[in-house]
From TrEMBL:
Pfam families: Glyco_hydro_43. Residues 1-19 form the signal peptide. Keywords: Carbohydrate metabolism, Glycosidase, Hydrolase, Polysaccharide degradation, Signal, Xylan degradation. Belongs to the glycosyl hydrolase 43 family. GO terms for molecular function: hydrolase activity, hydrolyzing O-glycosyl compounds. The keyword NADP does not apply. InterPro entries: Glyco_hydro_43, Glyco_hydro_beta-prop_sf, Glycosyl_Hydrlase_43_Enz. The lineage of its organism: Bacteria, Pseudomonadati, Bacteroidota, Chitinophagia, Chitinophagales. This is Beta-xylosidase. It comes from the Bacteria. GO terms for biological process: xylan catabolic process. It comes from Niastella vici.
Length: 727
């Protein structure tokens, strides 16, 4: 009787056989004709952080390997409590079995709250459908005698050894004072245990730690990517013709960033001879993707990758249409399907869904043609999204989302031109300048969106109307341009001065809790740092607070320029004519009252000097701005009874409106306030992280007839384009 092999199994066997064939390094192709891969999507498995609730397996899906969407609303898909000995798991790695239909996953059995040297175990998981998983804990110290000095077992991964006909599990271990080394062992037939004591697979020739190993077979070789610990840590690679021995170090770093990285993961893009090397930029709360065609040269593709979640150390596996449909049916909420839009005209981080009313608001960029606007709804296998005839210029459009096996839901979709946030992306602590030299406005913010305010560079944006902004790029990078500090690039300010008939731009900034100054001939740079901090210490007698948040102000009465700074205290001083040093005898501790926290800003109007500042903490939804008045740039500050300048508006979902600046339209008594707020709509639900995921907004600033300032109402709509007078 002739045995019939299922087509999926035959296809899988051919694919696997091809994976073992030698490849041409020049072309990156197999020597036999290429077989079209049966994969239509990608599954990303990851965890999200160091709290126990974050230390769990999560899934995300992608059609193209670049744009990923979290499944199950970014919640765990497997209970860590049920599968682990510690109550948490990290570093998930997933592969498809050699039979094409079985899936294997391994994870670190660990919670970070117990310490980095607390775990001795891993978890082995197995599934036939990606939905239901069996699991087993393997404690290396208990399972194999003689490991009394074992401190940790990290980041296991799996690969099929075709010669041995077994699944090899490899991982790093640290014993006593030795560095971390990468070991391997074969799993048993049921994938519930390791057959024998782990053997050493690779160690660094300079006796440095090696963790987070990831093996990719390509070009007839096994490529072992790993992270080196200690001095000069980063992603390196060792290569061997054999899976279990002979790895030779290629001693160069492969990550395309100067930031600390870990958790290298590689995957091949479907139906093309290109690979992705991705890694966790863990100090920044970022994930970087790089692309390569030879596994030797890597290009960062940050601008091509999107995610609606913040992964930590994870891996990606190609999946079929049927597998994607199964995952979608199990774990994709209707609300996540309708909010997945791809149009470049949409401010994607500000898309807002009223889950009760099923109303979706899409904020679009200035000038969007709403009559012919297409949101670019993204669908996955098993999902269809249809719209009733209509256009967004006349109101809401009804969309129907259908998920195979789950039915359908209708949504009312609205597209509105919102000018806030003024800048796309995460930025904070804005300062603004109208440059006489160019006749344009320039915005100088803190680059935000990095964990714990850990940004290291400053950018500039230009505009002719305060609504349409052009990204002028990085104008000062601490790692490249500043010798005395390499962290915490915060809260810049700038002033234009005409010196000997030439325009000069003096840029004051915070770095490492000190105030520096850089100089340029143009508002967009390049800026040259002075080589040392301008202000490094707190004023005499001041014990608390930080030397941060500079603000620069030129008195129109005298043309003298003053610098202000301080968190927990407000200090001010006159600058010398060189603009890069202060007149020490003019240092003054100002008294704005008990509400002062940080972010001093000074401006002048109709004979009055206005001092304004931020109250509360930037992580506080009630972060807001108050003001006072004075008779001079270093004079006594008088505080009005009603001195709130701008504050949250919970009815609009706008919170933490603070750290501001102001701008007067040249030749007009027309004023605007520029400030940051929590990201809308997600910030209020982010907890502490809302304080470093902020966005810059602009609204109208108005005065009463007596010179007092009307409280500004923050808006999503923002302002209309400003018309400048022609000279």
């Amino acid at each position: 009787m002739k045995k019939v092999i299922p087509i999926w199994l035959a296809l899988s066997m051919v694919l696997f056989a091809q994976a073992q064939q030698p490849k041409s390094k020049a072309a990156g192709k197999t020597n036999s004709p290429a077989l079209k891969e049966p994969y239509k999507a990608y599954l990303f498995v990851y965890f999200t952080g160091n709290s126990k609730s974050d230390e769990a397996i999560r899934f995300a899906i992608s059609n193209d390997g670049y744009h990923f969407r979290a499944l199950n609303s970014d919640k765990a898909v497997i209970s860590s409590e049920k599968i682990s000995s510690t109550g948490g798991v990290r570093d998930p790695h997933i592969i498809r079995g050699a039979d094409g239909k079985t899936f294997y996953m391994v994870v670190t059995d660990m919670t970070s709250d117990l310490g980095w040297n607390s775990n001795r175990a891993m978890v082995l998981l197995k599934s036939n459908d990606l939905i239901n998983w069996t699991s087993s804990v393997v404690n290396i110290q208990k399972r194999f005698p003689g490991n009394d000095s074992l401190l940790r077992v990290w980041a296991p991964q799996t690969i099929y050894d075709a010669k041995a006909g077994k699944y090899m599990v490899y991982f790093s271990m640290k014993h006593g004072n030795d560095p971390d080394k990468i070991y391997y062992a074969y799993a048993n037939k049921d994938f519930t245990d390791l057959e024998a004591e782990p053997r050493q697979l690779f160690f660094h020739p300079q006796n440095k730690s090696c963790i987070d190993g990831d093996i990719m077979y390509a070009f007839g070789k096994f490529h072992l990517f790993f992270k080196t610990e200690g001095e000069g840590n980063g992603i390196k690679k060792a290569v061997s013709a054999k899976l279990t021995e002979g790895y030779v170090l290629e001693d160069k770093y492969l990550q395309q960033t100067t930031e600390a990285v870990e958790g290298a993961g590689t995957f091949k893009l479907n139906n093309v001879n290109e690979w992705i090397l991705m890694y966790d930029v863990y100090m920044k709360g970022k994930y970087q993707f790089t692309k390569t065609s030879d596994l030797e040269h890597f290009k960062a593709i940050d601008q091509e990758v999107t995610m609606n979640f913040h992964p930590r150390h994870g891996t990606v596996m190609s999946i079929t249409k049927e597998e994607a449909e199964r995952l979608v049916k199990q774990w994709l909420p209707f609300d996540d399907a309708i909010t997945n839009v791809s149009s470049k005209q949409i401010k994607s981080i500000n898309v807002a869904l009223d889950t009760a009313k099923k109303t979706l608001v899409l904020p679009v960029k200035p000038g969007t043609d709403l009559k012919h606007f297409n949101p670019g709804m993204v669908t996955y296998p098993g999902v269809t999204i249809t719209a009733k005839p209509g256009n967004f210029s006349t109101g809401a459009v009804t969309y129907t989302v259908s998920i195979a096996g789950r039915g359908s839901l209708q949504y009312s979709v609205v597209a509105k031109e919102y000018h806030n946030p003024a800048l796309e992306g995460f930025y904070a602590d804005p300062d603004i300048l109208y440059a006489e030299k160019t006749g344009k406005f320039y915005l100088y913010p803190t680059s935000d969106g990095f964990n714990n305010w850990s940004g290291t560079y400053f950018k500039c944006f230009s505009s002719s109307d305060l609504v349409n902004w052009k990204d002028e790029g990085i104008i000062l990078d601490l790692n490249k341009d500043v010798s005395w500090a390499n962290r915490n690039a915060w809260a810049p300010c700038i002033v234009e001065k005409k010196i000997n008939g030439q325009y000069k731009y003096f840029y004051y900034f915070t770095a490492a809790q000190k105030v520096g100054v850089a100089v340029s001939d143009n508002p967009t740079g390049p800026f040259v740092d002075a080589g040392k901090p301008l202000i490094a210490d707190k004023p005499e007698g001041v014990k608390g607070g930080q030397v941060i948040d500079p603000d620069v102000f030129t008195d129109p009465k005298t043309n003298k320029t003053y610098l202000y700074w301080g968190n927990g205290f407000m200090a001010g001083a006159e600058l010398n004519d060189d603009m890069t040093s202060i007149k020490q005898e003019t240092r003054t501790i100002l008294q704005p009252g008990a509400t002062f926290r940080e972010g001093t800003h000074v401006f002048y109007r109709n004979g009055t000097y206005y001092f304004s500042w931020s109250e509360n903490d930037t992580r506080d939804p009630d972060y807001r701005v108050r003001y006072g008045t004075a008779d001079g740039p270093l004079g006594k500050i008088n505080i009005p009874e009603n001195n709130l300048l701008i504050a949250k508006d919970a009815t609009q979902g706008i919170y933490a409106t603070g750290h501001h600046t102001t701008i007067q339209v040249p030749g007009k008594d027309e004023w605007y306030i520029v400030y940051h707020r929590f990201n809308y709509p997600n910030g209020i639900n982010m907890g502490r992280a809302a304080g470093f995921n902020r966005e810059v907004c602009i609204d109208k600033l108005e005065f009463n007839s007596d010179g007092s300032i009307k409280q500004t109402k923050p808006t999503h709509e923002g302002i209309k384009p400003v018309v400048l007078k022609k000279n």
